[in-house]
């Protein structure tokens, strides 16, 4: 199970998670890491697209969800976890991590490690990593991509 933060502009318009540029990058990284993207359940911790828009017909700009919004969407994520019963949760970014593990979560401190935590009353194994969109925004995209790929290889080892 892959858990992102919230829908982006394209995801909101199409009603599916990770269908934009970050989704294409994630699929490429999953395949390179040895994880079949079609075998993964993909969702977001927050279910609505929060954005600002300077002018009509201009691109909608992502705004980070608040703790209140993450908490409000918690029951939907808990229901997904209960139905999917994932073997492993790949946590994509800080927002997803905070939604699953609490406000003290810091992706930079635990990325690429295997965590064992109780999430919504179930023991879960998780591998946190950066959100693919952060790779697209990085000054050194190649290094950022290599870091994401390394983290996903840890997830692939857990699944092997």
Task: Output the keywords.
single chain, 160 residues, Uracil-DNA Glycosylase, subunit E, two-stranded antiparallel ribbon, 46% helix, globular
Short characterization:
By secondary structure, the protein is α/β, with parallel strands linked by helices. The protein has helices spanning 9-14, 21-33, 67-84, 94-101, 107-110, 132-137, 141-159, and strands at residues 2-4, 42-44, 51-52, 61-62, 89-92, 115-119, 122-129.
CATH superfamily: Uracil-DNA glycosylase-like domain
Termini distance?
15 Å
Physical arrangement of strands within the biggest beta sheet:
2-1-5-7-6
Uncertain spans: none
**Class from helix and strand fractions:** alpha/beta
Percent range for helical residues?
A: 40-55%
Strand content: 15-25%
Helix and strand run: EHHEEEHEHHEEHH
How many separate structural domains?
1
Sheet of most strands: 5 strands, mixed
| DSSP strand count | 7
CATH class: Alpha Beta
